[in-house]
Design brief:
Length: 173
């Protein structure tokens, strides 16, 4: 899975954290942080101070069932844009097929069976699986979503998944 983002270099790196949470990660307001093997990355660092050309960092969300996303700065541009962060492109959703019928698209993942080969189910087979798996209920049945957080800790999808490739705008609280 991938995202290509255009980020204002004068913005705090926190804007990337908020964006990743909104599109891919947020489930229960867990802690998150950025890191690099050679230096500390803090949320108040400016994007241009962290992403020197070619620098790779990581972002960890949830320090219990951690989802790690790797980030790399590619280029620096002089642009006159108002937005702090813009989604330029992203992967198409994975086309997962039901493990039982092997025909219909998967809509649910069983988190209690997700270590096994057969954990993705279409709508019809989800109902069948519920009868044989005592844990396939509200807590262990999660939707198939376009996110590396799929199947983790109650994650049900991002707030901006429905606005495919649209511009992320920070909402004022």
């Amino acid at each position: 899975m991938f995202l290509h983002l255009l980020v204002n270099s004068d913005a705090n790196i926190k804007i990337i954290d908020k964006f990743l949470r909104a599109i891919w990660l947020e489930c229960c307001d867990h802690l998150s942080g950025f890191g690099h093997k050679d230096f500390k990355v803090r949320m108040n660092h400016k994007v241009h101070d962290v992403f020197d050309s070619g620098i790779k960092i990581f972002h960890d969300y949830d320090f219990g069932t951690t989802t790690r996303v790797f980030l790399k700065g590619l280029k620096h541009y002089q642009l006159n844009i108002e937005d702090q962060i813009i989604l330029l492109s992203r992967n198409e959703p994975l086309k997962l097929i039901c493990a039982t019928c092997k025909v219909e698209p998967a809509v649910n993942i069983c988190t209690s069976c997700n270590w096994e080969q057969y954990s993705f189910f279409c709508k019809k087979c989800s109902k069948k699986h519920e009868k044989v798996c005592e844990y396939f209920n509200e807590d262990s049945s999660l939707p198939v979503v376009n996110s590396p957080r799929m199947g983790q800790c109650g994650y049900t999808g991002g707030m901006i998944d429905v606005e495919r490739d649209g511009i992320y705008r920070k909402t004022e609280s």
